[in-house]
Every structure is written in structure tokens, then in C-alpha cells.
Design a protein that fits this description.
Oligomer: single chain
Number of strands: 52
Structural class: alpha+beta
Strand content: 25-35%
Shape: globular
Distance between the termini: 94 Å
Number of helices: 15
Mean pLDDT: 94
Largest sheet: 10 strands, antiparallel
Length: 917
């Protein structure tokens, strides 16, 4: 008997290893393409004007425009087609919501819960009172007010929905090309009909038959479209169909665990955000968001794609046509009119939520590896950072720290004293992050599995049993995070009582939450698995990781009785993920092209709400040459999320292992991040209040400059810094486009460069091109400590880059760096304005601030001051200060100098004026 059990165990291990080997590298045939995906293949075969739906019974009901969509063509032998119900709702700030669903389906179609903010659902709707009827392009149409300057239009036959400027040009439209199709749920198959779908060795039963939805979306006045992450490709989305298009695959949105993904591919990765943004010089910016968690495929159509069909949309406007296809769900779509890029960011995040405000430590540098072996390894790595004078804030532990891949446990042979280990780090102001994945080891002695099984908390397979798939622990089940009660239960597991060995300085990393299933179809969960008893996995898939992320973040909030902000990093991403923490771009590779593509990936995530994102510095796979590693640190220091990480098969690559010179370069890159932490933290607060991302495309700040529209080698950090990486080895020169009409100042030398032109710059290995925009003021902290928390009481430096009018402005936001008290007004928010020879500090805090700080400004650096002022007067203290030349960078006293007001010692919390004469 023992021999039989042993043989069975060996067989299972062999099969597991086979499955594992299949996912440990990119294999294209492991994943479906459009032709292997029946709903995509069917939709792509549709011709323009094939939609036969017309709007009937158009009226105002419950404050919205409603109508029935009825087919005007009934094919012979075709089953009766149920009417569709259309609802148009106008919302505050120029947002139009379009919903289309079946009337009386045999089963309710899935609608994604808990993504749209409750306050948007409840308070942002405008209650329409009336509609007007017009004949537009020969067709009866109903028109309703949307916002000042904009109207929503429903053309009746054939049906079309669009937003237009009042009595003017179109902005966004749905079904202008007549490609709308809505496959209705059925209870019974036709004779000889097969609903099952097969891919490789897997069969999807599809018990409700085909249920896909597809339609065209047109963006008017657009030069380019962006968004719909996640993929490793250019920032401006390239056409996928039409004349001159070589790549015929649509952009795929289907969360997958893609090991060693390739760059410059439309293939979807770990996250899916079905939000597209258009931008053009003529009209500005607009956006379209389809709230749908099923697999989606999106074509960007090249000009002339419809030439053979003779379609003629309004000819006075240029446009970009796109084609959206989803396997299931309903139409729940949002139109954002802009007209500016920051307007669209605000409008989108008013629906899905602004990014959460991180703790200060999370904005600093993170050190990670799969895996730091044991407590001794952790202690040695921590000590080496101090020995080499390199600050860091967080040390991470991957899956090997657990007891046999049972999450929320410790391997007590390797980590016998986890609380003490964490307390030693915390004594230096540092934190620890441990990994907690969604696959739960099927082991009756494991408390999480035991409770989940007893309470019926797992996702079910198509036969109603707990779904059993393979992942790191072997046989695993997956919590049904669609259910709020399961999320609430999961959140309790992060208390220090339940997560034995954890302390309040420990935070969490959610990996593999697409979800990844090594023996599942396309390395994920079967589509006919069941959530909540009434939703198929095909309908929920792209949001699964989002709900896991949500529940984990809630657990950390509950752990501190609602006082402290959580930090949770997630690999899977969906619309709304920005409310729960950070995201990284997954398992990249130590290659120059992966360094380069990290910029458009981070920019795209930021544009679609996910401001707190970054790529693994150095590349997860492979062993970077020292030059590549240094270049990655120099660029990565400007990612919103700054973490180095590496696979367990790679050589150790801590910053001090590549020779003294490279250690110095990496140290300088990390020091730059710590110096700029006040600026970054201020930008995170801006994102938290406005939705405008920390890392921005150049055209977000310079929306009329066409040279910025396709530039994805450089990025703006806030409105003040422009950074461009070096993406080739042994580079001696770099071409950098500096937009605008004002000067730009080199961050390290203070040298001035003209805007509105491309500069060919000499570069060396000491840094990447980085510039401060004239007309801005950046706050810094120039004293280096072991961690960000040890810098809290340090003085500030203001760097004032004057424009041609000898003016500049900037902001500083400060709070306690960890709690939610800022939401009750406990913060300092100042605006610094330099004009007419005076620097003023103005209070931007709403109401009476409850937060105090004794921090002062010890240096004010003046770049571009045109006259020879030598002195300054500080009011209301009536003190004098001298203006002299001082180091631009405090730690580089032999380096460039700049005019500096030394030791004005004005408090950051106070109103004051400094006059220069």
C-alpha cells in the first residue's frame, strides 16, 4: 500500500513538474489567438452596417432616456429575438452612461459589482426632465442635455449613440459603423448544435451558449488612442486591422500569468482595464470605458478599413474607429468628454475611484528577491545597505518563507523568530512585505483551507464541487472573492492574532491573482467554473484579482482598527484597483528592450487610473550586465513604485555586488529618489484628489504639441520633471525632446536648455537625462538617512526654476505619512509662488489644519534669476538672509553651484514672504 501511495505521489509530482515547465517560459501556443476564440472570430467576420436594431418607445423614465432596441430584420428560420433595453443617463462633469441588456433573459446576465463608486451611483446622476427630437442626417433622433456645451444623441434607425458638442461636432459614438451585435442567452440548443468549446486538452461546457457582445466605438478629432492595459507595447496604440497593418491580432484583455512575456505585442498580460483614451490636436481628449470583466478583444482600425463598404461618417472631422468584442456580460459603458487630458482623468476616476494615498514608506525604495533565504540572510542584506550608505524602506519575502506554501504561515526552520526580525527592521524605520497568493493549499491541517471548506467559500467547478487546480503548493482551491462575505472573512486573516508571526510593520504582496492555475486552460481557471452560485468564471475572470486585492487591503485596514493606510501590491489589475494599492508590470526580463517598454507600460497604467505602478528594476528573469542594471536604477528611481526584484535562478544582484563605481552610481540613483520624496508624496496626494497620475505622458502637460503624442521614451513626473531613460548599451548621446516655449534646467547641473526642440545630448554612465521645467518649484529633502521615516523631521530645500517672466510656482503636501487622519483635515498643503521678486507661501488646506510640523526650509535654490540680487528679507519676521552661490546638490559639494538663499529657516506650516533685492 505504501509503495502504491509513493508511486502515486511521484506521478503527481511528475505531472505537476510538466505543467510547471510549460508556464516557465513564453509559449505562444499555450494561449488562444482570435481565430481560436470563437466569439472573437465571429465578431471580426461581421461587416459594417450589419446591425439591424432600431430604437422604439423612446422616453424619459426615472431621470434617464430609455428605449427598446428591436431588430428590423428577421432572418428565415431565425429564433425570435427579444428586445434589448437601452438606458442613457447623464452624469455630472460631462459623463454619459450607456446600459444595454436583454429584456427578460432566461438567466440574469452578469453585471460587475463594487467597481463604480457608491457615491457616483447615488449622487452623480443628472435627472433628465425632457428630450427633444431632431432629424439628423435624415434620421429621427432624440437629444438630451449632458453638460454645458455637450449633448447626448440617440439616433433611432439604425440605432446609434453619440456625444456631440451642442449643435456641433461629434466627440464619441457607438455603432456609427453598424457593427453592434448582442448574442442572447438561450436555454436550449438547436438540433445538432454544439455549444462546447475546446482548446488543447480543455473543454468549456458553455451551458448557456454563445453570449458575446460587440460594437464599434469612434473617437472624433483624434490623432491617437491610448490605454486598455496591460501589454508590453507602444504607448500610442497601433492599428490592428486595415490597410497596411501587418499584425492582425486584436488587443486582448484577459488576465493571464505570462512567464517571460515578449515586448511589442498586442497580447494581454496580467491586468485588464477596458478604458481607452483618445487625444488629438484638433479636439483634445476624450475617453470610453466599458465596465465588463469577461474576456475582451479590441481592434484599432486603420484609416480606410471600411473603404469597400461605402460608409460615410461626418466628413468634416477626422476620427479613429475601434471595435470592441467581449465574451459575455452587458453593455455598461461610460463616455468622457474631456476636453483636456486631466479632465478625462478626473472624469474616469470619479466613476472608479481615485488612487489611494500610500504611506510615505511605500513611496521609497523596496528591495526584493525570490527569495531571501532565512533570517540571517535578511539581517545581512539589511546591514549591507547601511554599510554602503544606501537607503531603503522595505525588504520583501517571496513564497519560500512560508510553511510548505501555506500562506499566512512561516517556515520556522528558516524564520524561527519573525516578530523579532520585523522589529529589528522597524527600529531603523523599515518595513517588511510578505507574499500571500490566492491559491489555498488543499491540506486539512491548514487552518485557512479547513475554514474555507467548512464554510463553502471556494469557487466551484462546473459540477458543483470545490474547484481543484494546481499552483505553487500543488493541489489548491481558490476563494470565491466575488462574495462580500468571503472577502470579509479573508480580511480577518490579517490580524496579528490570525497571522501568527506578523507585526504592524508587515505588509502584503498579492501575486498569481489573475488567477494563475498551472494545469488550467491558458494557465488560468476554466471559464465554466462558478462564482456566487450564479456567475460563470468567464463573466468574472478579469475582476478576480481585483476582489482579492480589495479583501487583502481591507484586512490590513482592519488590523490597525482603521487607523493606518494599507500597502498591498497586486499583479492582477482591473478598473478600480487604484483604490487598493500598487501594481507592478510582472515578470519582465533583464533586456534593454524590457527597460524601454517599461515606460509606456507605466504611462498606460497611470492614464487608466493606476498611478502607483512600476517595473521590476533589473528585470525579473536573467542576469543583467552591470550597465543595464545601473541604467534601470537610474530610470526606475522615477517610477511611482520603485522596487528591485529577481528570480531565484538569477545571480544575487544587491546594489553593492557590481564593483565600487557601479555601487556609487546605484547609490546616487536611489539617493535621487529619496531627495525627491517630498515632491513624489505631493504628487501622490494630487493623484488621490484629482485622479491625475504621478507619471504622465508629455502630452498631458503639453496637449497641443504633436511631437509629444507618440513619445514614449520620456515621461513627466508631475508637471515639473521630465525624465528620459537610456535604452542602449554604451550610449554616448541621447536625443531628448523638451516641449513648450520655456527653458528646462538639468536636474544635476542646472544647465538651461530651450524648449520646443530636440536636443542631442552627451550622456555618461552617471545618470539619465532629467530636467526641471522653468516656471516650477520642487520641494526636496537633501539629507540622507537609512529610511524615509528617519527623514521626517529633516529640513526642506526649494528649487525654484524661473521662467521667462521670472515667475514660478509649486506645491508641498505633508501629513503624518501613515494614518487616515488626513481625510479629517490633518495635513499641511502649501503653494509656493515666486513673482515680482517675491516668494510667497500660501495655505491650500481646507479649513483649520490639525497637523503641525516644526520642519523648516533651510535652502532656496534659484535657477534662471536674471538680475544680480544679493540679499533677501523675510516677512513677517523682518529678518535678512544672504544670497550666495551654493551646491545644487548638497551631497556633491564639488559639483555645480547655483544662487542660494541659505538658512531662511521659515516653517513649512506658516504663511511668509521672502523679498529678493
Amino acid at each position: 500500500m505504501k509503495t502504491q501511495m509513493s508511486n502515486l505521489t511521484l506521478l503527481l509530482l511528475f505531472l505537476f513538474t510538466c505543467h510547471l515547465s510549460q508556464v516557465l517560459s513564453w509559449k505562444k501556443d499555450e494561449f488562444r489567438n482570435c481565430n481560436q476564440t470563437p466569439f472573437c472570430k465571429r465578431a471580426r467576420a461581421r461587416k459594417p452596417s450589419s446591425s439591424s436594431l432600431a430604437a422604439h418607445d423612446v422616453t424619459i423614465s426615472d431621470g434617464s432616456l430609455t428605449a427598446k432596441l428591436v431588430s428590423t430584420r428577421i432572418e428565415q428560420d431565425q429564433d425570435p429575438i427579444r428586445p434589448l433595453v437601452l438606458t442613457l443617463s447623464a452624469c455630472h462633469d460631462g459623463i454619459l452612461r450607456l446600459k444595454i441588456d436583454e429584456l427578460g433573459p432566461p438567466r440574469k446576465r452578469f453585471e460587475v459589482p463594487d467597481v463604480v463608486l457608491p457615491e457616483f451611483e447615488g449622487k452623480k446622476k443628472l435627472w433628465l426632465q425632457q428630450l427633444s427630437t431632431e432629424t439628423i442626417d435624415g434620421a429621427p433622433s432624440s437629444v438630451v442635455f449632458l453638460s454645458d456645451g455637450y449633448e447626448a444623441v440617440l439616433r433611432h434607425d439604425p440605432f446609434e449613440v453619440y456625444v456631440r458638442e451642442t449643435k456641433g461636432n461629434r466627440v464619441i459614438s457607438v455603432n456609427s459603423n453598424g457593427l453592434f451585435d448582442f448574442e442572447q442567452l438561450r436555454e436550449n440548443k438547436k438540433e445538432g448544435e454544439d455549444w462546447e468549446e475546446r482548446f488543447r486538452s480543455h473543454t468549456d461546457k458553455r451551458p448557456y451558449g454563445p453570449q458575446s457582445i460587440s460594437f464599434d466605438v469612434s473617437f472624433f478629432g483624434a490623432d491617437h488612442v491610448y490605454g486598455i492595459p496591460e501589454r508590453a507595447t507602444s504607448f500610442a496604440l497601433k492599428p490592428t486591422r486595415g490597410p497596411g497593418v501587418e499584425e492582425s491580432e486584436p488587443y486582448r484583455l484577459f488576465n493571464l500569468d505570462v512567464f517571460e512575456y515578449v515586448h511589442d505585442s498586442p497580447f494581454g498580460l496580467y491586468g485588464s482595464i477596458p478604458f481607452m483614451i483618445s487625444h488629438g490636436k484638433a479636439r483634445g481628449t476624450s475617453g470610453f470605458f466599458w465596465l465588463n470583466a469577461a474576456e475582451m478583444q479590441i481592434d484599432v482600425l486603420a484609416k480606410g478599413w471600411d473603404a469597400e463598404e461605402g460608409i460615410a461618417l461626418p466628413s468634416s472631422q477626422g476620427r479613429i474607429d475601434t471595435f470592441w468584442m467581449s465574451e459575455a456580460g452587458v453593455v455598461d459603458a461610460f463616455f468622457f468628454v474631456g476636453p483636456g487630458p486631466k479632465d478625462v482623468a478626473r472624469q474616469y476616476t470619479s466613476v472608479t475611484g481615485t488612487p489611494s494615498m500610500p504611506q510615505l514608506f511605500a513611496v521609497a525604495y523596496h528591495q526584493c528577491r525570490w527569495n531571501y533565504r532565512d533570517e540571517e540572510d535578511v539581517e545581512q542584506v539589511d546591514a549591507k545597505f547601511d554599510e554602503y550608505d544606501i537607503p531603503y524602506d522595505v525588504l520583501w519575502l517571496d513564497i519560500e518563507h512560508t510553511d510548505g506554501k501555506r500562506y499566512l504561515t512561516w517556515d520556522r526552520m528558516l524564520f524561527p523568530h519573525p516578530e523579532e526580525m520585523q522589529r529589528k527592521l522597524a527600529a531603523k524605520g523599515r518595513h517588511m512585505v510578505t507574499i500571500v497568493d490566492p491559491h489555498i493549499k488543499r491540506d486539512d491541517s491548514y487552518f485557512v483551507h479547513k475554514e474555507a471548506t467548512e464554510n463553502g467559500y471556494y469557487v466551484k467547478d462546473a459540477n458543483g464541487n470545490d474547484y481543484d487546480g494546481w499552483c505553487w503548493p500543488g493541489s489548491s482551491s481558490y476563494l470565491d472573492m466575488l462574495r462580500p462575505e468571503v472577502r470579509s472573512w479573508w480580511a480577518t486573516k490579517f490580524s496579528t492574532q490570525n497571522y501568527v508571526g506578523s507585526t504592524p510593520s508587515l505588509y502584503i504582496w498579492n501575486d498569481m491573482n489573475e488567477p494563475s492555475v498551472f494545469n488550467g486552460p491558458e494557465v488560468t481557471m476554466p471559464r465554466d467554473a462558478v462564482h456566487r452560485g450564479d456567475a460563470e468564471h468567464r463573466e468574472v475572470h478579469n475582476a478576480y484579482g481585483y476582489y482579492f486585492h480589495m479583501a487583502t487591503a481591507d484586512g490590513l485596514v482592519n488590523r490597525g482598527d482603521g487607523r493606518d493606510r494599507p500597502f498591498v501590491l497586486s499583479r492582477a489589475v482591473f478598473a478600480g484597483s487604484q483604490r487598493y494599492g500598487a501594481v507592478w508590470t510582472g515578470d519582465n526580463t533583464a533586456e534593454w528592450e524590457h527597460l524601454r517598454v517599461s515606460v509606456p507600460m507605466v504611462l498606460t497604467l497611470g492614464l487608466t487610473g493606476i498611478s502607483f505602478s512600476g517595473a521590476d528594476v533589473g528585470g525579473f528573469f536573467g542576469n543583467p550586465e552591470p550597465e543595464l542594471l545601473v541604467r534601470w536604477y537610474q530610470l526606475g528611481a522615477y517610477y511611482p513604485f520603485f522596487r528591485a526584484h529577481a528570480h531565484h535562478d538569477t545571480k544575487r544582484r544587491e546594489p553593492w555586488l557590481f564593483g565600487d563605481k557601479n555601487t556609487e552610481r546605484i547609490r546616487e540613483a536611489i539617493h535621487m529618489r529619496y531627495m525627491l520624496l517630498p515632491y513624489f508624496y505631493t504628487l501622490f496626494r494630487e493623484a488621490n484628489t484629482s485622479g491625475v497620475p504621478v507619471a504622465r505622458p508629455l502630452w498631458m502637460e503639453f496637449p497641443s504639441e504633436e511631437a509629444t503624442f507618440t513619445n514614449d521614451e520620456a515621461l513627466m513626473i508631475g508637471n515639473s520633471l521630465l525624465v528620459q531613460g537610456i535604452y542602449t548599451e554604451h550610449a554616448k548621446h541621447a536625443s531628448v525632446y523638451l516641449p513648450g516655449k520655456e527653458l528646462w534646467y538639468d536636474l544635476k547641473t542646472g544647465a538651461a536648455f530651450k524648449g520646443g526642440k530636440t536636443h542631442k545630448l552627451d550622456v555618461n554612465e552617471e545618470g539619465v537625462p532629467a530636467f526641471q521645467r522653468a516656471g516650477t518649484i520642487i520641494p526636496r529633502k537633501d539629507r540622507f538617512r537609512r529610511s524615509s521615516t528617519q527623514m521626517v523631521n529633516d529640513p526642506y530645500t526649494l528649487v525654484i526654476a524661473l521662467n521667462s517672466s521670472q515667475a514660478a510656482e509649486g506645491e508641498l503636501y505633508v501629513d503624518d505619512g501613515k494614518s487616515f487622519e488626513f481625510q479629517q483635515g490633518s495635513y499641511i498643503h502649501r503653494r509656493f509662488v515666486f513673482a515680482d521678486g517675491k516668494l510667497s507661501s500660501l495655505n491650500l488646506a481646507l479649513g483649520q489644519t490639525q497637523f503641525s510640523s516644526e520642519c523648516v526650509i533651510e535652502r532656496i535654490i534659484l535657477l534662471g534669476l536674471s538680475t544680480g540680487q544679493k540679499s533677501a528679507t523675510i516677512e513677517p519676521a523682518n529678518q535678512n538672509a544672504e544670497i550666495e552661490r551654493g551646491p545644487l546638490l548638497l551631497h556633491s559639494r564639488q559639483g555645480p553651484t547655483a544662487l542660494t538663499i541659505r538658512k531662511p529657516n521659515v516653517r513649512i506650516a506658516d504663511d511668509w514672504v521672502i523679498k529678493i533685492f
